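Colleagues,

For the teaching module next term, I've prepared a clean inverse folding example: a structure given as tokens, and then the sequence designed for it. I'd like students to try predicting residues themselves before seeing the answer, so please don't circulate the second half yet.
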């Protein structure tokens, strides 16, 4: 109990000392408040809310989208004047993990019991970039606000002690940070705070939050709370300083409480039991990601970044997540690399980009800066590593250049669609492509050049396609990637250009052309006009990025594997999307693009389930009866002279009520997946048949398949891939079966169990 409790009218007090479980006690009324948390009732992975180290004992971690506490008010605890107060003080220790974007101007609630339209109640919360405010409704019919001034924002991943004070008799509304007064706003002298009628007292969630996709409540606190107290008195400066000092006195040497990043970071552990969540694909610890991008190699480590919303598993306030790896397979989670800040560069989002090296060989990041106060609201910006200052090989700290480097040229490109820079160094200059579109022309990649990496010149349209001829290429291109492929049989230097179309009529896939670079004019000249697909799946192989691996000279591309689930299912799962496996691309002798998963993936093979050659269909399936798994690598070579369709069923239940069929149609030269029986769960939307052209002539079908939770990736004859998702409802959907509509020769098959990278 607080040393101020009896003397200064402590009405409510949550000390979060439980340290475990799914409820917390309000210590004055002794009411046991349930903690709302999405995974308490999860069918796949039920577990309690996350508790962390607090300033005193334990604290409660709020995940940013599902964790909150609703407390039923006890009139005995708040006194006889339950409908209004002449004074109120809220004291709480907060450690924010992420800031909200500020949708509709509403505050992320720390604690509230308010109705702003009625001018009733109170709200203590945060807004954009760590700004914070205390707001109250008064009996004068006014809604009054006091805001922390610039320079007194609540820092992320750090403990702060805040006090919010309403002193009606003296006409004051005040804020205190770490024991010191920082703001004061006048209110009518003698006014009273009116309690909001028919409104819950909620911790961690706004009483009137915005709702996204009919499921996700915004303005929810992300971080740790501890020592939350509400007084029916207005504590004065001396009392507040004393309360703050009381906590400091319990710290080593009386210092301000420190918070290690590991104590507040997103934790992937609770999600590891989700059988649909991939275990050897790169993924964020939790919540939402989109395309991985900006791969770069530096001092023995690969770095890969990704679009990330740290607040929950939905598309919202975009940051750059960050992984690091020694082998492109085993990744470590690092803190967010780039976040929106209260500046004129990127206050509204850090969108996709790329990485390259500066003149000293140090990594730099080029990103799309979002500033909704500007028109257009997208530009290209730069962040430099602090490696020279701290020699941190993990490159966890980056400094943004204060000004935009590339701005959309007047009259060029679809207004406001100017994003996803791909930057590389060519001889003694840096070149860049930026995705955009032109009305009645369609998607384009725009070219820029620079002699010093800071001053950029627009050079024109790098490449555009014929939208009338290929309408599926859409009005806008995103994520252009340009990589050298080597020299062909005629001695010509070949490159590959990849784009991702978006907008009305666009087929959201990764299309590519092979061709030549005109270095003087900065133009791309394709060998053939028609775009090609690497992957013939549907919307599960998108968002390309790429690099030339300095260690091996391999050309490697990375993609996002979209989850394709409803918002409700993603809310319940706590995660959305993951990366595809890194893919090595190369120029074949026949001039076509060759693809193969990187060889480092073999390090994940835990044990070989079976290996055999030259078997009939029946013999092979008899052997496969002993193989089960949802985390497998499969290499199989099949041939038939009589069958039209040949393939393999994966993720099968013993009774075949659920199964997914990967097959090749020889007559139509199509590689396809049939997901009509993939799941019995009517809420899942991954279903139907999808596929595309694969020309293997009369060669045997060679499939290299990776199963990982809901992920299926199939690589066929080194020419095409098919990436898809399945979410079997039954946990026994683990069997394999070779399949054909005629006779089938199984030339060979090998199956390995794969290890988790986490």
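(Answer key — instructors only)
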């Amino acid at each position: 109990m607080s040393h101020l409790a009896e003397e200064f009218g402590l009405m409510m007090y949550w000390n979060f000392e439980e340290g475990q479980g799914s409820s917390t006690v309000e210590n004055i009324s002794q009411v046991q408040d349930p903690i709302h948390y999405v995974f308490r009732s999860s069918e796949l992975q039920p577990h309690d809310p996350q508790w962390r180290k607090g300033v005193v004992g334990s604290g409660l971690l709020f995940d940013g989208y599902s964790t909150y506490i609703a407390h039923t008010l006890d009139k005995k605890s708040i006194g006889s004047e339950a409908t209004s107060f002449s004074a109120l003080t809220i004291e709480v220790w907060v450690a924010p993990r992420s800031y909200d974007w500020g949708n509709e101007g509403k505050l992320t609630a720390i604690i509230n019991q308010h109705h702003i339209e009625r001018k009733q109640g109170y709200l203590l919360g945060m807004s954009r970039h760590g700004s914070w405010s205390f707001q109250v409704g008064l009996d004068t019919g006014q809604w009054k606000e006091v805001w922390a001034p610039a320079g007194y924002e609540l820092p992320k991943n750090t403990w702060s002690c805040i006090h919010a004070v309403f002193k009606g008799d003296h006409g004051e509304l005040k804020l205190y940070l770490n024991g010191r007064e920082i703001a004061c706003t006048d209110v009518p002298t003698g006014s009273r705070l009116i309690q909001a009628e028919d409104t819950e007292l909620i911790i961690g969630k706004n009483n009137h939050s915005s709702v996204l996709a009919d499921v996700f409540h915004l303005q929810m606190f992300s971080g740790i709370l501890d020592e939350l107290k509400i007084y029916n008195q207005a504590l004065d400066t001396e009392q507040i300083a004393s309360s703050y000092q009381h906590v400091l006195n319990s710290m080593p040497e009386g210092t301000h409480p420190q918070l290690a990043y590991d104590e507040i970071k997103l934790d992937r552990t609770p999600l590891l039991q989700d059988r649909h969540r991939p275990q050897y694909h790169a993924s964020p610890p939790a919540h939402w990601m989109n395309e991985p991008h900006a791969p770069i190699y530096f001092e023995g480590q690969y770095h890969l970044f990704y679009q990330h919303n740290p607040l929950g598993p939905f598309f919202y306030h975009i940051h750059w997540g960050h992984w690091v790896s020694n082998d492109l397979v085993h990744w470590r989670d690092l803190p967010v690399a780039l976040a929106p800040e209260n500046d004129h560069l990127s206050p509204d989002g850090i969108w996709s980009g790329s990485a390259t090296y500066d003149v000293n060989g140090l990594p730099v990041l080029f990103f799309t800066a979002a500033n909704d106060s500007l028109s257009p609201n997208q530009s290209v910006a730069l962040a430099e590593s602090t490696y020279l200052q701290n020699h941190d090989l993990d490159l966890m700290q980056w400094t943004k250049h204060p000004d935009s480097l590339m701005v959309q040229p007047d009259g060029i490109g679809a207004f406001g669609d100017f994003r996803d820079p791909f930057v590389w160094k060519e001889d003694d200059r840096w070149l860049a492509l930026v995705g955009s579109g032109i009305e009645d022309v369609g998607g384009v990649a725009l070219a820029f050049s620079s002699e010093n990496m800071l001053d950029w010149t627009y050079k024109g349209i790098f490449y555009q396609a014929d939208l009338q001829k290929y309408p599926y290429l859409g009005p806008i291109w995103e994520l252009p990637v340009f990589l050298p492929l080597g020299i062909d049989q005629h001695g010509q230097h070949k490159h590959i250009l990849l784009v991702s179309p978006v907008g009305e009529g666009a087929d959201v896939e990764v299309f590519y052309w092979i061709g030549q670079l005109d270095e003087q004019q900065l133009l791309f000249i394709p060998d053939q006009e028609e775009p090609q697909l690497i992957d013939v799946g549907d919307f599960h192989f998108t968002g390309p990025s790429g690099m030339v691996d300095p260690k091996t000279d391999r050309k490697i591309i990375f993609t996002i594997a979209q989850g394709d689930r409803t918002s409700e299912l993603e809310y319940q799962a706590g995660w959305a999307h993951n990366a595809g496996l890194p893919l090595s691309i190369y120029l074949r002798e026949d001039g076509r693009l060759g693809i193969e998963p990187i060889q480092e993936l073999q390090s994940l093979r835990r044990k070989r389930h079976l290996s055999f050659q030259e078997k009939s269909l029946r013999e092979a399936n008899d052997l496969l009866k002993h193989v089960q798994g949802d985390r497998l690598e499969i290499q199989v070579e099949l041939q038939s002279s009589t069958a039209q369709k040949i393939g393999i069923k994966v993720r099968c239940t013993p009774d075949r009520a659920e199964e997914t069929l990967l097959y090749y149609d020889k007559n139509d030269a199509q590689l396809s997946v049939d997901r009509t029986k993939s799941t019995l769960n009517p809420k899942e939307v991954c279903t139907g048949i999808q596929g595309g052209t694969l020309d293997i002539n009369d060669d045997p079908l060679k499939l290299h398949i990776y199963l990982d939770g809901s992920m299926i990736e199939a690589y066929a004859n080194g020419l095409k891939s098919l990436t898809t998702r399945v979410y079997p409802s039954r946990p026994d959907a683990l069997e394999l079966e070779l399949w054909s509509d005629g006779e089938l020769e199984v030339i060979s098959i090998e199956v390995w169990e794969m290890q988790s990278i986490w």
